Amino acid sequence: MASRLTEISLDCHDPDRLADFWCAVLDWVVLHREPGLVEVGPAGRDDRELLEAVRSGPVAPTLFLAQVPEEKVTKNRVHFDVSPVDGTQEDEVERILALGATRADIGQSGEESWTVLADPEGNEFCVLRSLAPGHFTL
């Protein structure tokens, strides 16, 4: 018996704005929208196909953006790591900054191989090394 990671929930003030941001960063789409709640994820599967995929093995989780009144107070205890797949890490950082991210200082030394950014509501995430052909091989 096993469970699968199927959704990640992120509290926020403006789910629509964060949905636009994360869809642009990850090349995802809005899967469901209602007042105060937006679900984003990879495009292309109907519900029946997705259910079968989840039952047979891990799939990319969707992201639920839920509106809450509280402010973000401290550094996230959990954060996302993203890896560019078709360009350099530096180019991806610049692209994400242009989408509305900001640089975040959470006490890094400056020697890290990743770059810490924050989404438009201040949730930290890291841009890791590039996985693009020519930048990463096994």
CATH superfamily of the largest domain: 2,3-Dihydroxybiphenyl 1,2-Dioxygenase, domain 1
Question: Main β-sheet: number of strands, strand sense, barrel status?
Answer: 4 strands, mixed
Order of strands in the sheet with the most strands? 1-4-3-2
Overall mean pLDDT: 91
Query: What share of residues is helical?
Result: 10-25%
User: And the CATH topology of the largest domain?
Assistant: 2,3-Dihydroxybiphenyl 1,2-Dioxygenase, domain 1
Structural class: alpha/beta
Distance between the amino and carboxyl termini: 32 Å
pLDDT < 50 stretches: none
| Rg, Å, rounded | 16 Å
Q: How many domain regions?
A: 2
Q: In the CATH hierarchy, what is the class of the largest domain? A: Alpha Beta
If helices are DSSP runs of H or I spanning 4 or more residues, what is the number of helices?
A: 3
The SSE string, one letter per element, is EHEEHEEHEEE
Number of strands: 8
Secondary-structure arrangement, i.e. CATH architecture of the largest domain: Roll
What proportion strand? Answer: 25-35%
The backbone outline, from C-alpha atoms, is globular
Task: Summarize the helices and strands and which ones pair or pack.
Blueprint: E1 7-12, H1 15-26, E2 29-34, E3 37-41, H2 47-56, E4 62-67, E5 80-82, H3 89-98, E6 102-103, E7 115-118, E8 124-127
Parallel strand pairs: 1-4, 5-8
Antiparallel strand pairs: 2-3, 3-4, 6-7, 7-8
Organism: Nocardioides zeicaulis
InterPro entries: Glyas_Bleomycin-R_OHBP_Dase, Glyoxalase_6
Domain Glyoxalase-like: 8-128
